[in-house]
Amino acid sequence: MKKIYGLIAVVVAILAFAFYRASMPKPSANNNVKKVAGPKTVKVGILQLVTHPALDQIHRGVVAGLRSQGYHVGKNLKIDYQNAQADQANLQTMASKFANENEDLMVGIATPAAQSLAKAAAGKTPVILAGITDPVGSGLIKSNQRPGANITGTSGESPLKSHLNLIKQIVPKAKTLGIIYTTSDHGGTYNALKMQKLAQQAGYTVKMYTISTTNDMQTIAGQMVSQVDAVYAPQDNGVASAMKTLVNVANAAKVPVFPAADTMVHDGGLATLAVSQFQLGKVSGIMAANVLKGRKPANYPIEFIRKGIMSVNTTEAKLLGITLPASVLKQAKDKGEIFK
């Protein structure tokens, strides 16, 4: 009987061992590979002042710049995009939202947006400037070479001398130049006053016109085109937003409008040598990626893109009865843009 019990015990032990072996994971070529965690998902807040083509191009460029450095939406990048639609209260609320939600980095498109972010960040969260005309003069940084604190980015200062030379080329008989800008737009004011000085030095009679909001454009433009031979529209968010209104009024008086941005030529401006707004945004996005990877904004110099590309609107030239110089058309065709 003892032998039978002993035999049963052996069988049970064998069965138990077999069951244990069966429950063990099967050997795999991957069992010895150490699992590496994927890249951390970063959160980036993008604050844009208002919707208009130039700022929209900067926004797209920022996303493209981040993507070029390995940050992809839906993989390792989460973007919170907010548009204030030119409302100062919205800017403050949206900037505070980014700060409260502990974004890893914030991007400001247009000076008022960048100023709101700088205030909300309180020197902590990195802020990237995207195409800000005068970052030092607007109080955002200490110097272009050493911005200081938590802010750096790109400047979108226009090539004003090139713009003035283009006006001379296309309308050589023009004597009086009207310059229109928005009183509350720091970048627009900065560019308008610089152009005023350059144009006066070149021998033009310069007349300055301002708008407070886009609602003023119809009336102010109507006054302006009766007093000038040509109009200069600087890189100004209010003017860019009301560009089609400005063009409609100017066209009725057969007065050409020379804007600062290629997107404004698309909206009816005659011609410009424009800094690419998309490229400005892309460089800002690349700088944002470098900061996310550890580079300190305080000693990261502001990046400038000063070389413009020729943009012309041939439909506008025909409507105004202006013959564009062959050299201008060739430059636009070879390395720039022709809008029809």
* Coarse shape: elongated
Q: In what order do the strands lie side by side in the largest sheet?
A: 2-1-3-4-5-11
**Helix and strand composition category:** alpha/beta
Tell me what portion of residues adopts beta-strand conformation. 15-25%
Helix and strand succession? HEHEHEHEEHEHEHEHHEHEHEEHHE
Largest sheet: 6 strands, parallel
Output the radius of gyration. Answer: 29 Å
Low-confidence stretches: 1-13, 15-20, 22-38
Average pLDDT number: 90
Helical content stands at 40-55%
Please give the number of β-strands. 13
What is the tally of helical segments? Answer: 13
Distance N terminus to C terminus? 106 Å
Short description:
This protein is α/β, with parallel strands linked by helices and 340 residues long. 44% of the residues lie in helices and 19% in strands. Helix 2 runs parallel beside helix 11 and helix 3 (88-100) packs parallel to helix 4 (111-121).
Question: How would you sum up this structure, described in words?
Answer:
The longest helix has 22 residues, at 2-23. The protein starts with a helix and ends with a strand. The protein has helices spanning 2-23, 53-68, 88-100, 111-121, 160-170, 186-201, 217-225, 237-241, 243-252, 262-266, 277-292, 314-320, 326-335; strands at 42-48, 77-83, 105-109, 127-130, 151-155, 176-182, 205-211, 230-233, 257-259, 271-274, 303-304, 309-313, 337-339. The protein is elongated, with a radius of gyration of 29 Å. It is 44% helix and 19% strand. The protein is α/β, with parallel strands linked by helices. The chain has a 6-stranded parallel beta sheet with strand order 2-1-3-4-5-11, with helices on both faces. A 4-stranded parallel beta sheet has the order 7-6-8-9, with helices on both faces. The chain has a 3-stranded mixed beta sheet with strand order 10-12-13.
